[in-house]
Design a protein that fits this description.
This protein is of the alpha+beta class. Strands 21, 22, 23, 24, 25, 30 and 31 form a seven-stranded antiparallel sheet that branches. A hairpin with a 2-residue loop joins strand 16 and strand 17. Helix 1 runs antiparallel to helix 3. The chain is rod-shaped and about 190 Å long. The relative contact order is 0.06. About 10% of the residues have low confidence.
């Protein structure tokens, strides 16, 4: 019974093999007949010159190819077969079919190219047939598979649905079994993965990515594709050239983000340290550049490290001797880009630190200091303080002490140092972890630090690197002075000797009458009246004065000042005088000697103006204005400082661009009405002018300032 069954199985296998062989030869014959229409060499009779005496099958086929102009590729395996047959009056096509049958060959056709090789019989896998039914109208699919290879199943699904399915290397022979009635494609594919212990991730570009489920004890170096393609962590490349991305990451490890995006963008990367402990990223945005994405990922790393550093420093300062040391600082990570290569590592590794040169475009790295005020050092007291300080420094220097210090009064009163560079006004949080060098000549800032911190600093610098407005200030200073003086009266007296009549009558009267002239006048009155007035002594004289003066003086200054926003502009016009200060010192005790040092110090009287403008956001102008007007008076001694008469005012005004502000009110009025004369007679109308001298004086001075600011960007 067993023998009969074996014979039946052998016969059945032989029958199947024979059928397959006949099918193969029939296919080759039909293909050669079709090619014969355009390839004449297949219908030609075999060349009699071709000998078959101990010739390898490969050489025989090559000889046929050369003799009959056929394009033929012969497998090297045919060099092991030797033939001795003799063919006569047969076509090339028949010879080829005979050789395929006799020596178990197969011919593959590529156009009119024949590729002859050994026939390898493929044993068909009698597994469950793959049944895939996809409906494109509603995107539903039905699946019926059992112990089929993953590659074959995916190929059938992709051919039917035109959707892309991917799998990790080595999974092509994974056996799949599933029976799913027509349902939504995404749901069916998800359940297919679930039923066969696979993981599925659908990417933004509609790829279905499968992988084997990872084991709990799997090392980080063998993380599965599922861990690298989290369902809640997807991205899409919008523009590969500009590295523009659309991302949606939810608690995705930073190392996975870098590797996934780097692979998609074909980026060259160098890891100086593993990034498995770099943390996770949660970010969703429609458009972000890869460099900015890195900055967002690593910027918090430095911030956390900075916070830990400050906490540790504070803790170490307050820690007692018996306390345990603080925990080590958390490791922070960063990146650096050099050309097309990205470097990743910890922040203290030199390979990922970066040197950047920032050139300011609109403003200077050196902050301009305000010019020295024109209103300072106008007080005699301030000058005396400066002079006295200078003497003290000189004495200390002569006694061998330190060199004299600066005696500028303004510096003595103001000990605050003004910022010297733009770095002085940047918050410390922005500069943390970076090293700076300033190049004033090239207007550059040289920075060393991590890329994330440098990018954060550059972003801040870009926001403050704006054009500073220039304010042109047109000033008109008008000072008007009006004077009026009236002096009149008669002076009688007796001199040491007779006086001669002399003086002026017009336009001012200042006349001295001698005794002779006065006697003539008296005689004239005596001859015309009943009274005899007598005569005056020879040395008698009379002085008659009648003078009135008027003045109208106007001084006008029209300076133009230009300054940067927030900086002071000064104008001064005045006169300098000098006064002496004498310093006497006694040297020695047994034979004391007195030394005297006389120095002359300047003092100014001026018309000075200080203006500091500020441009507001709505392009209005704030002006901080200080005006002083001073003039010299009398001196109590030749070497003493002169009196100073001064007028000043300060004001802060707000005005529109190119408006005119009028600042006035510095007005000085002076009136004097005095006289002297003979008692009682000096008060009688008309004749009082013969017995008195009167002086009336009036003076008025007014200072007005007109200011017009113009903002220039």
């Amino acid at each position: 019974m067993k023998s009969i069954l074996s014979i039946i199985l052998i016969w059945f296998a032989f029958s199947i093999g024979q059928a397959q062989s006949n099918e193969r030869l029939s296919r080759i014959q039909n293909t050669l007949d079709s090619l014969s229409v355009n390839t004449k060499g297949l219908t030609e009779t075999l060349d009699a010159s071709i000998s078959l005496n101990e010739v390898t099958l490969a050489n025989f086929l090559l000889a046929i190819s050369n003799a009959h102009n056929l394009s033929m590729n012969v497998s090297s395996q045919l060099s092991q077969i030797t033939i001795t047959n003799n063919f006569s009056d047969v076509t090339i096509a028949n010879v080829l079919v005979f050789l395929c049958k006799e020596y178990n060959l197969n011919i593959e056709f590529t156009g009119n190219i024949l590729s002859v090789k050994q026939h390898v019989q493929i044993q068909k896998d009698h597994t469950h047939p793959i049944a895939i039914d996809y409906n494109p109208s509603n995107e539903t699919i039905a699946i019926d598979i059992k112990d089929n290879n993953l590659y074959e199943v995916f190929k059938n699904i992709m051919d039917a649905s035109a959707k892309n399915l991917m799998f990790a290397p080595g999974m092509e022979n994974q056996k799949l079994t599933s029976y799913i009635k027509a349902t939504d494609f995404d749901a069916a594919i998800d359940k297919l993965a679930l039923a066969n212990s696979l993981t599925l991730t659908k990417t933004k570009d509609n790829f279905y990515v499968f992988d084997l489920q990872s084991k709990d004890n799997e090392s980080a170096s063998k993380q599965s594709l599922r861990q690298r393609l989290n369902p809640n962590s997807t991205f899409k490349v919008l523009n590969k050239n500009s590295q523009l991305l659309e991302v949606n990451f939810v608690d995705t490890p930073i190392v996975d983000v870098i590797r996934m995006v780097g692979d998609s963008l074909d980026i060259s990367m160098f890891f100086a340290s593993p990034l498995e402990k770099a943390g996770t990223l949660t970010l969703s945005t429609k458009s972000i550049n890869f460099d900015k994405l890195l900055v967002k990922m690593f910027e918090p790393q430095v911030e956390v490290n900075a916070m830990n550093t400050m906490v540790n420093v504070s803790s170490s300062n307050n820690r007692n001797s018996n306390q345990q040391p603080s925990q080590p600082e958390a490791i922070s990570y960063t990146f650096k880009k050099e050309g097309a290569i990205y470097f990743f590592g910890t922040t203290n590794q030199l390979s990922v630190r970066k040197v950047e040169i920032i050139t300011l475009r609109h403003r200077s790295v050196n902050l301009m200091a305000d010019p020295e005020s024109m209103l300072s050092n106008t007080s005699v007291r301030d000058n005396y303080i400066a002079a006295d300080q200078g003497f003290r420094n000189q004495i200390n220097y002569n006694n061998g002490n330190n060199r004299p210090q600066n005696s500028n009064v303004r510096h003595i009163q103001n000990g605050n140092q003004e910022p010297k560079s733009i770095l002085d006004i940047i918050p410390e949080e922005i500069k943390y972890g970076l090293d700076f060098k300033i190049d004033f000549e090239l207007n550059n800032i040289y920075i060393t630090g991590t890329s994330a911190r440098i990018e954060f600093f550059k972003k801040f610098i870009t926001k403050i690197d704006k054009t500073i407005p220039v304010i042109l200030i047109e000033v008109m200073i008008v000072e008007a002075q009006t004077t009026n003086t009236l002096e009149a009266g008669v002076t009688w007296g007796i001199g040491d000797e007779p006086q001669i009549t002399q003086g002026s009558l017009f336009p001012t009267t200042d006349l001295t009458l001698g005794a002779q002239t006065i006697n003539k006048i008296i005689n004239g009155f005596s001859s015309t009246s009943v009274f005899n007035f007598g005569r005056v002594v020879p040395n008698f004289f009379a002085t008659v004065k009648a003078m009135e003066t008027n003045g109208d003086l106007k001084i006008k200054s029209t300076p133009k000042l230009a300054t940067l926003n927030g900086h002071k502009a000064s104008f001064s016009n005045g006169q300098t005088s000098y006064y002496a200060i004498v310093q006497r010192n006694i040297i020695g005790t047994d034979n004391p000697q007195t030394s005297e040092i006389r120095n002359y110090f300047p003092i100014d009287a001026k018309l000075g103006l200080d203006i500091k403008p500020y441009v507001t956001g709505d392009k209005q102008v704030l002006l901080d204005i200080n005006v002083i007007q001073s003039s010299f008076g009398q001196r109590i001694a030749d070497d003493a400082p002169p009196d100073i008469n001064s007028r000043n005012f300060s004001s802060v005004v707000r005005m529109k661009d190119q408006d005119i502000a009028v600042l006035g009110g510095l007005e000085e009025n002076y009136k004097n009405n005095s006289g002297s004369g003979v008692p009682f007679l000096a008060r009688i109308p008309i004749i009082k002018w013969l017995f008195s001298k009167r002086v009336r004086e009036g003076r008025k001075s007014k200072l007005t300032v007109f200011i017009k600011p113009t903002v220039i960007y």
